[in-house]
Input
Amino acid sequence: MSSFEDWLRSSAHRLRTVDPDEQDDDDLKPLLDIIGDARVVAIGESMHRMHEFLQVRHRVFRFLARRAGFTALVMESGMPEGALVDNWIRTGEGRLRDVLAEGIGYRFGACQEMLDQVTWMREQHVRGSVPVRFAGMDIPDSSASVLPAVQAALALLDDADPHYAAHLRSTLLPLFSYLPADRTGLAQAAPAIQSYLALDAAVQQKITVALTDLVARMRARRPDMIASLGGANAAEERVRFGIRAAESAQAGDAFLHAMVSAPSRTWPAANVRDVWMADSVEWVLEREPRVLVAAANGHVQRTPFSAPPFVPEPMTTLGGHLADRLGADYVAIGTAFGHGDAWLHRPRPDDAPGHSHPFVQSLGAPDPASADAAFSGAGIGDLLVDLRATPPEAASALDRTVGLRNGDVLQPLPIREAFDAIAYIDEVTPWHTWIDENGLV
Output
């Protein structure tokens, strides 16, 4: 591996800090050459809920907003709920912690790092300096149900198509009574999904048919709804969002229904979630010139994702779809790390369904066969490197690695095909969350 380490020492760009408040950002200037004119830059996380990865994301977004005309952060979080966060950034309405809890899925908003990033985005609007936006790109409700999307569509229909809204409130909304009453736990998605899988097939079909009708009708009545709301730009934007929320419900329903057929399926699985996220990024690009996408490495990578035994068949990723559609307008930056501590959670025997207790686990040195070990072996510390510039001998050495770690698990992937660049963090620490020791916010 010495050829790769020698090249890394001479060519990698050392990250002087991960602190987004650091005013001197000259160490990030090489990023401009890496991304070029790309409209979509994605930055991954090899583990969620890591302080340093969240800080790097925030620092990179500030840099790109100031230096390269990036105007939106697009996150691995529910598309309909993300409007709450975007509204707070633009208006300051509401209590920020509540907005983060309701507007960002998977509990990703329950931390100081996210609060700091959203607060900085709000400051740009107040100052009128770099007005930036927020968007979720994922299916709703932490991928556990489509109810938030239906509610977002109804908020529009109550004003723009009230008779149909009343119909949905009496026919579609009651079908979601299957959802568990307690949605407060860290692992609340599990019992919600289990409850859907336990539904009678006829009820599942009623939901699917109602959502199909909802999307078809809203699309067909788009001009009528805009006119009913006054026909101004604000009305057009509101209808645009409402239709998209309905479409997210349809995508979420397809994601859930794929689990129903999984035990008896004889055909390869399809990654419904990631194609929806790619569609959502393109939807955001209709109004924003350049965006930063933030998600797990396994979503932003260009190559198919597999993680045996849980995901045995390679599946096309968000990054794979965007690379196919956008070509050079898509740049994927993966993350890697050396050692540190991870914030994890697991249910205890006496925990109620959907509840889980957090704990911190020490992560040792990376697997010697991993790419993380190759970056660590150079002894540089935190760094950013353009993998497309790797010379043949160093490339050959890197190609012999077998993947990147996710905690103590090694995810197999061809790293130079998967990512255009890597941000390596030598030591990682847990996020600064306000989730308590009982797993409660």
The longest strand covers residues 330-346. The mean pLDDT is 96. The radius of gyration is 22 Å.
